[in-house]
Design a protein that fits this description.
It is built from four helices and two strands; from the N terminus they run αβααβα. The protein is α+β, with helices and mostly antiparallel strands. It has helices at residues 2-11, 35-46, 48-51, 65-73, and strands at 18-23, 54-59. The chain is flat, with a radius of gyration of 18 Å. It has one domain. Helices cover 44% and strands 15% of the residues. The longest helix has 12 residues, at 35-46.
């Protein structure tokens, strides 16, 4: 009976969708600005089965690198 309950609990586990925030680089400044989000999305797609679904959301605010680091520390960005 305990085994059945444990299996039911494991099967019933659902991952909540996570939001991954990243700094959106202006394509006019950096021609390869779309490369990083594309690679990140591919990695997220490949890991959905293991870690659950995730949404990629850009943060479109002009900021210097130092401010990006502060944004990471203050939970405004997840990756940069």
């Amino acid at each position: 009976m305990l085994f059945v309950m444990a299996c039911t609990a494991v099967i019933g586990v659902a991952h909540a969708e996570q939001t991954i925030r990243y700094y959106q680089v202006d394509p006019a400044v950096d021609g390869s600005a779309g490369y990083f989000p594309t690679i990140l999305q591919m990695a997220m797609d490949k890991s959905t089965e293991k870690y659950g679904p995730a949404e990629l959301r850009s943060v479109k605010v002009d900021m210097e690198q130092q401010r990006q680091f502060v944004s990471l520390n203050n939970n405004i960005l997840d990756v940069m």
